[in-house]
Amino acid sequence: MLETHPSFPAKTVPELIAAAKSNPGKFSLATPTKGTGPYMAAELFKMMAGVDMVLIPYRGEAQMVTDLLGGQVQVAFAGISSSLEHIKGGSLRALAVTTAARPEMFPDVPTVGEYVQGYEASGWCGLVAPKGTPAEIIGRLNSEINAGLADAKFKAALGAMGLSVFPGSSAAFGALIADETEKWGRVVKFAGLKPD
C-alpha cells in the first residue's frame, strides 16, 4: 500500500506524482529492507511514474510505520497488514494499493495502476514441485490446493489480513513466475541493485 502521514499535502497519487516531479529529491519514500516486496514496489513506482524521491529502506516495517506515524518520513510503501489499523483509525492515509484490483477491505482506495498505467506490484506465494515431477502428481496437487483455496473459512481468514487467493492451473502459475522474473529483473536494473 502507498500511504502517507495525514499532514502530507498530496491526497491522491496524481498529486503525489506532481509534487515529486516539481520537487525532485525533496520527498522521502520509506520502505522496509532492500529487496522486500514494498521496497521493490517503490522502485517500480519511481521507474514507471518518473519521479525522483529519496528512498529510505528501514530494517523492519514496524520502525518504518512508527516514523511515518511520527511524521519523520512523508510517504511509504508498506504491507497492508502492517498499517491496517492505522489506516482504519485515520492516523495514516492510504493513497493507493499496489495490487491490480482494489481489495475488498478497502474498496474506496484506488490502485496505483489507475493512475500509472500498467503498474502492479503484488506479493504472492505458491507451491512448486521439483522439475520432472510426473504430470499426474502435479495435477492432483493443483486440484487439492485449489479445493483448499475455495474453503470459505480459509478465504475469510486470509481476507481479514488483507490477502486474496487466486486458484488456477499449474501452467498459469508457471507463466506468472516467468513474467514476474522478467518484470522485477527490469526493476533491479533500473534501481542498480547489487547483492549485499
Could you describe the 3D structure shown?
The protein is an alpha/beta fold and 196 residues long. The chain has 2 domains: 2-123, 3-Layer(aba) Sandwich (D-Maltodextrin-Binding Protein, domain 2), CATH 3.40.190; 124-196, no CATH class. It is built from 7 helices and 5 strands. It has helices at residues 13-22, 37-49, 61-69, 80-89, 135-149, 152-160, 170-191, and strands at 2-4, 28-31, 54-57, 75-77, 93-96. Strands 3-2-4-1-5 form a 5-stranded mixed β-sheet. Strand 2, helix 2 (37-49) and strand 3 form a beta-alpha-beta unit. Helix 2 (37-49) packs across helix 7. It is globular and about 55 Å long.
Class of secondary structure makeup? alpha/beta
Let me know the number of strands: 5
Shape descriptor reads globular
What is the H/E order? Answer: EHEHEHEHEHHH
What is CATH's topology name of the largest domain? D-Maltodextrin-Binding Protein, domain 2
As laid out across the biggest beta sheet, the strand order is 3-2-4-1-5
Give a topology summary.
Elements lengths: L1 E3 L8 H10 L5 E4 L5 H13 L4 E4 L3 H9 L5 E3 L2 H10 L3 E4 L38 H15 L2 H9 L9 H22 L5
Parallel strand pairs: 2-3, 2-4
Antiparallel strand pairs: 1-4, 1-5
Looking at this protein, list some descriptive labels.
196 residues, alpha/beta, D-Maltodextrin-Binding Protein, domain 2, 5-stranded mixed β-sheet, 7 helices, 5 strands
